[in-house]
TrEMBL record:
Pfam families: NUDIX, Nudix_hydro. Belongs to the Nudix hydrolase family. The keyword Phosphoprotein does not apply. Keywords: Hydrolase, Metal-binding. The gene is LOC101490014. Residues 99-231 form the Nudix hydrolase domain. InterPro entries: NUDIX_hydrolase-like_dom_sf (IPR015797), Nudix_hydrolase6-like (IPR003293), NUDIX_hydrolase_CS (IPR020084), NUDIX_hydrolase_dom (IPR000086), Pre-Nudix (IPR040618). This is Nudix hydrolase 7-like. PANTHER family: NUDIX HYDROLASE 5-RELATED, NUDIX HYDROLASE RELATED. It comes from the Eukaryota. GO terms for molecular function: ADP-ribose diphosphatase activity; metal ion binding; NAD binding; NADH pyrophosphatase activity.
Length: 274
């Protein structure tokens, strides 16, 4: 009697000649292995290149079967693991996992030339007595200009308005061997009564900007000293950073563009609103 034909795993074609397999129900690992083998054969015959498996955490018992079939880890999120397999006998051109995370630092200055600073209760600067800018990480799907306003509010209770990006730096092997982008942002305070975040911040205050820049911590670190000098130059009116403008892509997605806000940029803004 002819053996029963094994169905392939449901899949969705991507835009790059590959397919994304979705495991949406529980199954025995041996049964999954047979379905996966049939799926790999089917999509190879179809001339597909990359095979992706989106494996929800509740189906983690199937990871071993996928790995034994030749799949490798690509990335993981709290609720799923993504595995991938390159089908043809050609160089693998599948994109790597995200290579960077994004951080932000806030230069919040009031009319008295006082900068908002914090002392962290733990981490690299915990217990050191160093006064530093409020900093934090940008959440997934969050814009830089919104992330820094949120971080300042969370750490100090101060309401602010984003002004511009003053500078940014890239470093490597920073967090689990990933690279890091850090954006120094200038903010305008809209409130002044500090309420420190008890879980992360030991203290917060308004500090004369010259005193901040004169700290040994700043003076002895080339990067921090350079950032402080940029901030001081901005206050003296001799520096222009990158302002934000909300634009749209060809697909209609709204996105922020950061640009040098000089005289030419003013003409660009004027033409945008005509």
């Amino acid at each position: 009697m002819e053996s029963e034909k094994i169905e392939v795993i449901s899949a969705e074609e991507d835009k790059h000649g590959g397919v994304i397999l979705t495991v949406n129900k529980s199954m025995d690992s041996l049964f999954f292995a047979s379905k996966l083998k049939a799926s790999m054969s089917h999509w190879k015959q179809q001339g597909k290149k990359g095979m992706w498996i989106n494996l929800p955490i509740q189906h983690s018992n199937l990871v071993d079967s996928a790995v034994k079939a030749g799949f490798r880890y690509h990335h993981a999120e709290p609720d799923y693991l993504m595995l991938v397999y390159w089908i043809p006998d050609t160089p693998d051109t599948l994109p790597a996992n995200a290579s960077h995370r994004v951080g932000v630092g806030a230069f919040v200055i009031n009319s008295k030339r006082e900068v908002l600073v914090v002392q962290e209760s733990d981490g690299r600067f915990g217990g050191t007595g160093v006064w530093k800018m409020p900093t934090g990480a940008v959440d997934e799907g969050e814009d830089i200009c919104n992330a820094i306003v949120r971080e300042v509010k969370e750490e100090t209770g101060i309401e602010t308005e984003f002004v511009e990006v003053l500078a940014f730096r890239q470093s490597h092997e920073s967090f689990f061997q990933k690279s890091d982008l850090f954006f120094v942002c200038m903010l305008q305070p809209r409130s002044f009564d500090i309420q420190s975040q008890a879980s992360e911040i030991e203290a917060a205050k308004w500090m004369p900007v010259e005193d901040y820049a004169a700290q040994p911590f700043v003076q002895e670190n080339e990067l921090f000293d350079f950032i402080a000098k940029i901030c001081l130059t901005k206050l003296d009116g001799n520096y222009t950073g990158f302002s934000s403008i909300c634009t749209s892509t060809s697909s209609g997605k709204r996105t922020y563009l950061y640009f040098n806000n000089d005289t030419i940029a003013s003409h660009l803004l004027a033409s945008k609103h005509e």
